[in-house]
């Protein structure tokens, strides 16, 4: 499936040529018939040698209608440039060729029309030479020139042959599974409702599909698809299609909107980083508002030059387009820049970052480095720079708005994961530099924590995570990696540096000795955490440390016991139970001298440990 577009000066015979080539009149509007000129886009089609259908978009050649030309030429595979033999190269030939060049159209055939009007073969040679020289500077430099007359049919067969050859040469449009139909016409048809037309790219659409209109996000249903006046179940990328849509009104749709297969494709943006190139003898000042033709839409945007104040040559420069409305842009899309008044084409460019942040002067170097890497649109650079830009990104989201399929993108990501240039963390891919930075940050946070609180075991993971602002999946993967590599230890939900050994200072050792003395002196009523805190400032950390070191054990309500003492109580309690079968709070009091304040937490602890079991007011041995 292939789409051609005509180009060239008004009255050079574009529409007549298509009529002879295809037997279809591309001029359909009553006004076009009356004035004998093309005003808006026309569409015809042709079967080529391979049996394939080739759609042809006919564009108006009058200067006044360039705003209709560009939407027609964006999305074409090849150009049919028409130059009248009597006039030769004219201003609109020039402007259309510039547009084709800026849109990156490389395939073309030139029809030198109206040769029936010229008797002097020398003249024809001269015009051909002129055309060849002018095209030599453009993307159309390889186009062949065919002399034709729509009046007497001379050369039409040769032209058809050239189109056959072109169709064989051009690689079929890629199906990347993300169909886009930039709408170039909207109309209603009696009995079937709203119809939109355009050149389908990047994927296929089927009748019955639910679709999304961008940028509005309105949903619609494809009732019928026609391609070259034939009803088809499925339309292939590269073909001209007309969709009969249900569920939308004509007023909801306009040229420039895009039919997308999924809501996910409708990621909108207003700030886009691009590379632009001016046509010769044009200049552009920073912060100029221009008309941007992107796919089939006509938009206004402020153009901010990145790293320069003015452009005065045809050397490409980086820029930021700030649109006054939402668009759903794609990496690699071409666009045309025109002035508002006078309405002239001054250049064009390619989208390099569809979701850019507002450019600030201080970011210039970084922005230029980033865009330089992307200008070739190579997937390798795009993947790496995209992950670097986001630091981490969900795999599914990676370069979704690009001219590549998700499978192609995933294959590159997988390679970089293997090579360690990216890191996988759950559903995310993470830039390896960022990953290492975050690892260092975790180690640093813990290092500082251990310095500040040498007695503490470490920090709860949640606290460390709160310093980092990372998705849980990535944080968990990061800490796990640090644990696996032996840099971190994890106990419960606490993490610490492996090198960290909580230890006491000399003064703290004195405090510990004092505390142990208090425990030894008060066997039946050991001091609680609260009581210790009141007597000994700074005892909280020491108590926690002593618990961690198994010197103390803490029960409910801050009741503390020396570990050895508690273990003795436990074994004596078990002995008592083995003899008596049950134990009461009174028994505990007579055995150890404990008041309820101690007995209840101790019995609760024994229950918890599975030593005892409560039965009414008494404890019995738990069955083991
Ligand atoms: N003698 C002659 N006249 C032609 C030829 N092709 C087109 N014309 C005439 O040129 C005029 C403009 O043609 P049209 O196809 O509308 O040009 P367009 O503006 O480029 O689409 C019409 O009057 C056509 O009849 C040709 O090959 N020979
Ligand atoms: Mg015409």
Beta content comes to 25-35%
Question: Roughly how much helix do the residues carry, as a percent range?
Answer: 25-40%
Please tally the β strands and state the result.
33
Name the ligand types: guanosine-5'-diphosphate, magnesium ion
Arrangement of strands in the largest sheet: 2-3-1-4-5-6
Mean pLDDT: 93
| Biggest sheet record | 6 strands, mixed
The CATH topology of the domain at 2-169 turns out to be Rossmann fold
Describe the structure.
By secondary structure, the chain is an alpha+beta fold. Among the domains are: 168 residues, 3-Layer(aba) Sandwich (Rossmann fold); 86 residues, Translation factors (Elongation Factor Tu (Ef-tu), domain 3), CATH 2.40.30; 66 residues, Arc Repressor Mutant, subunit A; 111 residues, Arc Repressor Mutant, subunit A (Orthogonal Bundle), CATH 1.10.10. 34% of the residues lie in helices and 28% in strands. It is built from 18 helices and 33 strands. A hairpin with a 2-residue loop joins strand 11 and strand 12. Helix 8 packs across helix 9. It is elongated, with a radius of gyration of 39 Å. Bound molecules: guanosine-5'-diphosphate (GDP) and magnesium ion (MG).
